[in-house]
């Protein structure tokens, strides 16, 4: 804790104390939802599963003292448990959360409490939150059991609901009140771990996802792109080896050779056709449907534009977009990240960028490598037109992929694990689509359809 004095408007010295608080508990019990409700007053039906940890701050007043809470919302998934000590080390308070509709999460909460009692600061204030109290009809953990366990272990206890706000502010306030607000509590970690003393957190009501182990320097505004992307790659690598949950919540950034083959298969066919038809010589613009080689060029170029647009949308778009995407086949429906066929405004811009990059690369490559006698008919207008159509087809291709994904690919939400899945199952809530095509099949089909549309339409509209 840090504590300092500042002059209030009335000239009296108002004290500010700063505490580190950590939230622990099984995945999907509602840790992030509780923090989000407390800090921003919001609740998301499809709350993304936390990766690593998220950081937020919130300031409350307790008896004329401004209490600044640094909230470390940890990831509950099993694979992240080894990271937890980094977050509870030096914490002066902890909320251990369980889901009242799931008895296993209560057992896991008890294990967290035991670990905190053994390894965290000796005077840490611990609260036990029985979340999802609005689902009392499905209750598996009795209030009396949790209450008596909390009393035995000296814990603050409340049942909460991030959905209805029930007891959310109260549990944070109860902890804030119990925290010792004197200077000499500043070494609350008992010399065991790293304290956040002296760090000045200036940003309130913001959240920042952090790379595990990178908790230092917590001043910060919005989630940095680099950090989120790094997380994305980490999560992707984990997913590669995760055979239990086939999750596409964070799409695989590291692509398998099959995925690469499926993305490039149609473009390769056009490239081979082109080489055969031109006897491996070059042929440049303008596109002319009387020349077979021109047709192959269009096919190759626009298939590549489609793949690049779709890839950028799914890789950059999901990381950069701030809000949940919407289904292309039903734009009024907000769906979780990773749903097949879900699009966002940022994702569309990324698709356009993907097409633009391909068009530009083609023009630059042409001007460098193509023999001048083959460029004889190529004008600046042709190049600009081509660049424009490539850009547009980056979006067209990506949209075709999304329509196929939203209809012929299954997307579901596994509430228990808080992830988006691609296969139907007993506890899976269907979001969209039917389990007909795989992701790779959709990629092949969308690039083929895009190239066919381009081959059909471009010779007509290009002058
Ligand atoms: N009905 C109901 N649903 C809730 C409540 N709190 C959270 N949820 C839902 O439970 C799911 C999981 O919530 P999260 O906040 O992501 O859970 P978490 O503990 O942060 O999960 P991890 O980040 O994976 O550790 C989301 O779909 C939420 O909408 C609640 O109080 N009531
Ligand atoms: Mg979370």
TrEMBL record:
GO CC, one annotated term: early endosome
Q: Entry's Gene3D superfamilies?
A: P-loop containing nucleotide triphosphate hydrolases
Sequence intervals crossing the membrane: 342-365, 386-408, 444-462
Record key words, sorted: Endosome, GTP-binding, Hydrolase, Lipoprotein, Membrane, Nucleotide-binding, Prenylation, Protein transport, Transmembrane, Transmembrane helix, Transport
Report which reactions are catalysed by this protein: GTP + H2O = GDP + phosphate + H(+)
Question: Where found in the cell?
Answer: Early endosome; Membrane
Q: Where is the composition biased (Polar residues)?
A: 196-210
Give the EC number(s) under which this enzyme is classified: 3.6.5.2
- Top-level class of the enzyme under EC nomenclature: hydrolase
An annotated Gene Ontology molecular function: GTP binding
Any GO BP annotation:
protein transport
Name a Pfam family for this protein: Ras
* Primary location recorded for the protein, binned into one broad class: other
- Which stretches does the entry tag as region Disordered? 182-212
SUPFAM superfamilies named in the record: P-loop containing nucleoside triphosphate hydrolases (SSF52540)
Query: Membrane topology per the record?
Result: Multi-pass membrane protein
Give the PROSITE patterns listed for this entry.
RAB, RAS, RHO
> Cross-referenced InterPro entries, in alphabetical order?
DUF92_TMEM19, P-loop_NTPase, Small_GTP-bd, Small_GTPase
Family to which the UniProt record says this protein belongs: Belongs to the TMEM19 family. Belongs to the small GTPase superfamily. Rab family.
Its recorded name reads small monomeric GTPase
Taxonomic source organism: Rotaria socialis
């Amino acid at each position: 804790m840090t504590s300092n004095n500042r002059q209030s408007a009335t000239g009296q010295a108002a004290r500010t104390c700063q505490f580190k608080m950590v939230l622990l508990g099984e995945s999907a019990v509602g840790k992030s939802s509780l923090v989000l409700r407390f800090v921003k007053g919001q609740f998301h039906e499809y709350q993304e599963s936390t990766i690593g940890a998220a950081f937020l701050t919130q300031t409350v007043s307790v008896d004329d003292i401004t209490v600044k809470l640094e909230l470390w919302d940890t990831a509950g998934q099993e694979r992240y448990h080894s990271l937890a000590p980094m977050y509870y080390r030096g914490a002066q308070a902890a909320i251990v959360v369980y889901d009242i509709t799931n008895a296993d999460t209560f057992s896991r909460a008890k294990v967290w409490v035991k670990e905190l009692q053994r390894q965290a600061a000796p005077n840490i204030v611990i609260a036990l939150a029985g979340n999802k109290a609005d689902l009392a009809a499905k209750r598996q953990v009795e209030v009396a059991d949790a209450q008596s366990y909390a009393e035995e272990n000296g814990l603050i206890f409340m049942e909460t609901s991030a959905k209805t706000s029930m007891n959310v502010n109260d549990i944070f306030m109860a902890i804030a009140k119990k925290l010792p607000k004197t200077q000499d509590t500043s070494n609350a970690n008992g010399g065991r771990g790293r304290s956040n003393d002296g760090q000045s957190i200036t940003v309130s009501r913001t959240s920042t996802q952090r790379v595990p182990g990178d908790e230092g320097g917590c001043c910060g505004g919005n989630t940095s792109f680099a950090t989120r992307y790094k997380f994305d790659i980490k999560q992707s690598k984990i997913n590669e080896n995760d055979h239990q949950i086939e999750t596409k919540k964070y799409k695989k950034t590291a692509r398998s050779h099959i995925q690469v083959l499926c993305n490039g298969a149609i473009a390769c066919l056009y490239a081979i056709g082109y080489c055969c038809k031109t006897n491996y010589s070059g042929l440049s613009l303008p596109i002319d449907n009387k020349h077979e080689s021109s047709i192959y060029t269009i096919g190759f170029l626009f298939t590549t534009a489609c793949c690049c647009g779709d890839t950028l949308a799914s890789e950059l778009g999901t990381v950069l977009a701030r809000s949940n995407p919407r289904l292309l086949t039903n734009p009024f429906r907000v769906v979780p990240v990773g749903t097949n066929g879900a699009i966002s405004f940022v994702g569309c811009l990324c698709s356009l960028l993907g097409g633009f990059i391909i068009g530009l690369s083609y023009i630059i490559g042409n001007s460098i490598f193509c023999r001048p006698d083959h460029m004889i008919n190529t004008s600046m207008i042709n190049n600009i037109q081509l660049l424009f159509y490539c850009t547009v087809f980056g979006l067209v291709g990506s949209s075709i992929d999304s329509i196929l994904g939203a209809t012929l690919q299954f997307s579901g939400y596994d509430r228990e694990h808080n992830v988006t899945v691609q296969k139907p199952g007993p506890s899976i809530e269907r979001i969209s689509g039917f389990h007909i095509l795989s992701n790779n099949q959709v990629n092949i089909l969308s690039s083929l359809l895009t190239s066919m549309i381009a081959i059909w339409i471009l010779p007509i509209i290009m002058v």
